[in-house]
Amino acid sequence: MLNIYNIETSNYVNGNGCRYVLWVQGCDLKCTGCWNKQTWSFKQKKLKSIDEIFSQIKSLAHSLQGVTFSGGEPFLQAKVLSVLAKMIKENTNLDLQIFTGYSKEELKDEFHIKLLKYTDILVAGRFDMNKPNNNQTVYMLNNNIDAWLFNNSDVEIEINDYMDIKITGYPTDKLIDGIKRECI
Prior knowledge:
This protein is α/β, with parallel strands linked by helices. The protein has helices at 50-60, 78-91, 110-117, 173-183, and strands spanning 2-11, 19-24, 46-48, 66-70, 95-100, 121-124, 137-140, 155-159, 165-169. β5 (95-100), α3 and β6 (121-124) form a beta-alpha-beta unit.
């Protein structure tokens, strides 16, 4: 089972094209300026099986270019995510991108290596909003896919009929506060 914070089935700022984005719950890195602090807790948020998640991905695959794992910290759930990644790569034509706060050199555990085996693009390094590219490096692990041009100013905002706001990408605190003020 995966401890999930959120899933977006149609997202355009967390990799190339339309993406299925899975944010895992739990992170102990506490990166500088992280705007996703609600994903830090290791308390159970939403538990989902990899079969349930893969079934949803497969049903949407015709409209997706890829899948993105983010967080929280995906490599803290690498054992289960590596199984999901294998299912995605063996049964679809989707690419896989992962955002991690770990440096590439820190990913040495057997399950980290297994997950990396299925990863096309890795965005790695301790997030720091005060540094260029948020202190993260993009690694193209598969040269057969289009390179992702990292842009730490892209933001996607969804507001539903109930005025629930979902913001993904790289919003500033000023932008988030302004949106909340206008919508409340």
